[in-house]
Every structure is written in structure tokens, then in C-alpha cells.
Design goal:
- The protein contains 4 helices and 7 strands.
- A hairpin with a 3-residue loop joins β4 and β5.
- The longest helix has 17 residues.
- The chain is elongated, with a radius of gyration of 16 Å.
- It has a 5-stranded antiparallel sheet. Strands 2-7 form a two-stranded antiparallel sheet.
Length: 145
């Protein structure tokens, strides 16, 4: 994974994402993972929309999230996203959320996804069905084919 692509997405914590104390509610980090994942896919050359239009869905099958510190209202944060693992059927993204003012890691996590045929619901083996997309994923993940 030494050559894995990492995409960063920066934004400020919005007021509606916090509780009465100005601390980000824990569930919002999962939304931020999605923001990072969508941007990763866009920058990688396999954005969600064309993938879904081609009849392939990428549902979440598992989520892991570890909280290290709290983000606060108006903090500038960065979501770092990369491909953690890929086995031609499942794709796991890794994430870190970092406060930009001090570099403190706030959250780390992973989401696991399966490639699924939209019409049948069956698992799609990317290297057979979409070899060009498979090659992009392998390259972006820093894997050997």
C-alpha cells in the first residue's frame, strides 16, 4: 500500500452537526466518511454515478469507527480516504479525520462494500465483468494485479 492514492477533503464543522455543547455528534463522522469516499471515487476515475448507471451498486456491508478526540463547531477538518483492501468482489475504504489547526487525529475508520449487480442483486466479480475498472482500483490501491 506504499503507493496507494490518498484523497483529502477539507471543510468546516457546521453548526447542525453538533450537539448543545458544540461537539460533533458521533454519527456525523459516518457522513464525513461518505463525503471522503465519494470524492475519492470521483478523483480516482470511477465516480458513483457512472458506476450506478452501468448497473453496479456498492452497498456498505460493514462499518468500523474509532473515536480519538472531539471535533467542535467551526473546526476546519480534513477527511483522508484511501483503499484499504480489495479482493475483486469487496472494497474496503480507510479513513482518518484530522483537525487542521493542530493536526490531531479525531476519528479513524473503515467501510466495507461489495460490488453488486443492480438488477439481480448478485455479487459482481470486477476483474471479469469490468476489467478496466478493476485495473483502476488496483492502481489506486497500490496493489499488484
Amino acid at each position: 500500500m506504499a503507493n496507494a492514492m490518498i484523497v483529502t477533503t477539507e471543510f468546516s464543522v457546521r453548526y447542525h452537526e453538533t450537539d448543545k455543547m458544540g461537539i460533533v455528534h458521533h454519527a456525523n463522522y459516518l457522513h464525513w466518511f461518505e463525503v471522503g469516499r465519494v470524492e475519492f471515487m470521483r478523483q480516482s476515475g470511477f465516480p458513483y454515478r457512472p458506476l450506478e448507471e452501468a448497473g453496479v451498486f456498492l452497498p456498505v456491508t460493514e462499518v468500523a469507527c474509532k473515536y480519538h478526540a472531539s471535533a467542535l463547531f467551526d473546526d476546519s477538518v480534513e477527511v483522508r480516504t484511501w483503499i484499504d483492501s480489495y479482493n475483486k468482489v469487496r472494497l474496503t475504504f480507510g479513513y482518518e479525520v484530522v483537525r487542521l489547526s493542530d493536526g490531531e487525529k479525531l476519528v479513524s475508520g473503515k467501510t466495507e462494500h461489495v460490488f453488486q449487480d443492480a438488477a439481480s442483486g448478485h455479487v459482481v466479480r470486477m476483474h471479469k465483468t469490468y476489467p478496466d475498472l478493476h485495473a483502476i482500483i488496483v492502481e489506486r490501491a497500490g496493489l499488484s494485479s
